[in-house]
Amino acid sequence: MKNSGKITLAIMILLTVGIGLPTKGQNKKLIHGIEAGPSITEYIGESSRRDREYNPQVMFSLGYSFYYQHSGVFSLKTGMFFERKGAQYEEGYTDSNGNPTGSYHFYEKLDYLILPVSARTSFGKKHIRFTLTGGLFTGILLQANVVRQEKTLAFGHFAVDKDGIEGRFKDLDFGITAGVGVSYNTSKNSILSFEAIENLGILTVSKREDFKTNSICFMLGYAYIIHSR
């Protein structure tokens, strides 16, 4: 499926969920927001290459969030996020005599469109609330690349090349999402928030190796409240 088709499908799903939610009734609110922040991503599982060890790397996530608050403490959260996942590994090489002369460092970058659906509860005072979130997410692969960087003993680091690796990965990811955070009502209609969210994949995403994705995102957010009538 081409990227334009994947994005169109995701928007249709999000609109269907949003339109289907009731907006009338006491304490019911619609909350629209934007969130962004750095993340730590990794692969979980075993590589088919015994000489290859994948390590975590720092990436990022950003997107649009949508809350339907049913009561003062419970809400349903969904949204649409761009999240870069992946991992890194290193492979050394030697000269003709077997002496180490340098290494290649590989950075795999998997760009996903993330669609979470989760329940959220909050507790605390009127303006400062602590939140707990748990649910599921679907990830749609947009593109996948690997950046190779060479490190030599004589010259240090310099970038070598960048290759597309979409053929090595499946189109869909799926897993569990959970988070903990804090929010502050800056006014009657606006909220600032910070949340640590883990997206733990439960499907094997590689066509060649037996590993899943995992990411921990540290998200700063701003949201606007639409009160029910």
How are the SSEs placed, and which strands pair?
Elements: H1 3-19, E1 29-46, E2 57-69, E3 74-94, E4 100-124, E5 128-152, E6 156-164, E7 172-185, E8 190-201, E9 210-227
Antiparallel strand pairs: 1-2, 1-9, 2-3, 3-4, 4-5, 5-6, 5-7, 7-8, 8-9
Folded structure, characterized:
The protein is mainly beta and 229 residues long. It has a single domain, classed as Porin. 7% of the residues lie in helices and 68% in strands. The protein contains one helix and nine strands. It has an eight-stranded antiparallel beta barrel. β4 (100-124) and β5 form a beta hairpin. The protein is elongated, with a radius of gyration of 21 Å.
Task: State the end-to-end CA separation.
Answer: 41 Å
Number of helices: 1
How many domains comprise the coordinates? 1
Rg measurement, Å: 21 Å
- Identify low-pLDDT runs: none
Which strand order do you get reading across the main beta sheet?
Answer: 1-2-3-4-5-7-8-9
What string, H for helix and E for strand, traces the elements in order? HEEEEEEEEE
What is the CATH topology classification name?
Answer: Porin
Shape: elongated
**Which structural class do the helices and strands define?**
mainly beta
Which oligomeric state applies?
A: single chain
Instruction: Give the overall pLDDT as a whole number.
Output: 84
Strand proportion, as a percent range, falls in over 45%
Tell me about the largest β-sheet: 8 strands, antiparallel, barrel
The total beta strand count reads: 9
**Portion in helices:** under 10%
CATH architecture field: Beta Barrel
CATH class: Mainly Beta
